[in-house]
Design brief:
The complex is a heterodimer of chains A (138) and B (156).
Chain A: H1 2-11, E1 35-39, E2 46-50, H2 52-58, H3 75-80, H4 83-89, E3 93-100, E4 106-116, E5 125-132
Antiparallel strand pairs in A: 1-2, 1-5, 3-4, 4-5
Chain B: E1 3-13, E2 16-23, H1 26-38, E3 44-53, E4 58-66, H2 68-76, H3 85-99, H4 105-117, H5 127-155
Antiparallel strand pairs in B: 1-2, 1-3, 3-4
The chains are: A alpha+beta (138), B alpha+beta (156).
């Protein structure tokens, strides 16, 4: 998560938020499958991109779908549920916790949400990353 | 009732403090704070722990990390603010290591030799005991003197 945060900082011009189009997946190839992006341009946040690890884990590709379809108490849901806070504070936020695994046992996760802006100030997107202790995420 | 704790990284640039990011993990926050502290982009960096007590609805704030440049500035100003836990821990470690540093072997040997050869100075007696002792001694001397006078009188 700190590496993704460092990448986001490198993208950001001095004192401004970085734009979504500046993200180059090749620059973060090892992290990209655990990432996702949200488009906040419409009435509801939409998954603009969902990494392969999350598609495989969730069992469904939510690209182009509203974030609320991530369900409840899933890894993706926990990863995006605090996007309101990022929207209001305009700063990166990282939270961790647990979600129930396939066997019902709690699985530890960590996620981070990083604000994106086309004009450097008004947030219209979020770059996110989420990882957990499941084998498929290693 | 739970206590909610978050860690905020604050950065100073062009004279303005700004909340840079928020963490719920202390170690991650300090790691990132330290990394930013080494970055020339920011003049100063702090990591602040904020605790919200749901029962009392009070917020507690405590700075747990300051970049080296701010620590230097804090040392030169008269402030009553206590040092961060990291500084306290480093000071404690330094004190402990200093007290456990053994003297050189030749010094130890000299001390041991002196302990074996030294005679202990007897402790001083109390003044009352000194007075009684002298009084008894004086009485004994006077008794002997009187005895001698009596004997001499008897003879002559």
């Amino acid at each position: 998560m700190l590496r993704l945060l460092a990448y986001w900082r490198d993208l950001a011009p001095e004192g401004q938020l970085p734009a979504a189009h500046r993200i180059q997946p090749a620059d973060i190839a090892d992290m990209w499958p655990a990432c996702f992006t949200l488009d906040l341009g419409g009435p509801k946040p939409i998954f603009a991109y969902v990494g392969d690890l999350h598609v495989a884990h969730h069992g469904r590709d939510l690209t182009g779908r509203p974030a609320e379809e991530a369900g409840t108490d899933t890894l993706l849901w926990h990863a995006v549920e605090y996007f309101d806070e990022v929207l209001s504070r305009k700063i990166p936020i990282t939270y961790g916790g647990t979600f129930p695994g396939g066997d019902g046992e709690p699985v530890a996760y960590r996620s981070i949400l990083l604000p994106l802006s086309d004009d450097g100030d008004e947030i219209n997107g979020i770059l996110g990353g989420a990882n957990c202790l499941l084998e498929e995420f290693k | 009732m739970a206590k909610l704790t978050v860690f905020e990284i604050h950065t100073l640039r062009e004279g303005t403090w700004k909340i840079d990011s928020i963490f719920d993990d202390r170690e991650l926050a300090v790691m990132e704070g330290e990394r930013l502290g080494r970055n020339q982009r920011f003049e100063l960096v702090r990591v602040v722990e904020e605790t919200f007590d749901e029962e009392t609805e009070r917020v507690g704030t405590h700075t747990i990390y300051r970049s080296a440049r701010e620590q230097q500035q804090t040392d030169t100003t008269d402030t009553k603010e206590s040092p961060s836990p990291e500084v306290l821990e480093a000071l404690r470690r330094n004190r402990l290591s200093a007290s456990r540093t053994p003297p050189p072997p030749e010094v130890l040997e000299e001390l041991h030799r002196r302990r074996l050869s030294s005679t202990r100075t007897p402790p001083k007696k109390s003044m009352v005991k000194q007075f009684l002792g002298r009084a008894i001694l004086l009485a004994a001397i006077m008794g002997i003197a009187l005895g001698l006078v009596y004997i001499l009188n008897s003879i002559f």
